[in-house]
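Hi all, long-time lurker, first post. I run a small reading group and we've been trying to get comfortable going from sequence to structure in the token notation. Rather than ask abstract questions, I figured I'd post a concrete chain and ask someone more experienced to write out its structure so we can walk through it together at our next meeting. Sequence below, copied exactly:
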Amino acid sequence: MFYEVTEEALDPAALVAAVRGLGAGGLVTFVGYVRETSDDGRPVEGLHYEAHRELAIAELRTIGAEASTRFGEARVAIAHRIGELGLGEAAVAIAVAAAHRGVAFDACEYAIDELKKRVPIWKQERYLGGDARWRENA
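-- Answer (accepted) --
Happy to help. Here is the structure in token form:
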């Protein structure tokens, strides 16, 4: 399938194209965007992501393979941005296609949850006023 860690803007349609096929009766996408408020309520002006690219891509492939077999056969594609992101930009995108919608939903949820736990990508929130803080994935 399709797995990438990139400084370029994400294209969810490319992920959909990578997983779509005639055997897929259900296709689920998830896109995570930079929002204007942090979890603690502070106003955010953007995010900065760093990654160990090779290890991150390898772990994305592992998660995709796990998601593909754990809930039933599925095709999985995952992309994550690194570098500077502004408000409203896509930080992560996942597309999952499967014969049935339940498999696609479950595999997509598994993929984002495991990505947050395991992939060596680090997020720094940049707040209005100049402060910044590295955040734990959750």
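A couple of things your group might point at:
Strands lie at 2-6, 26-33, 44-51, 74-81, 83-86, 90-98, 121-127, 132-135.
The mean pLDDT is 96.
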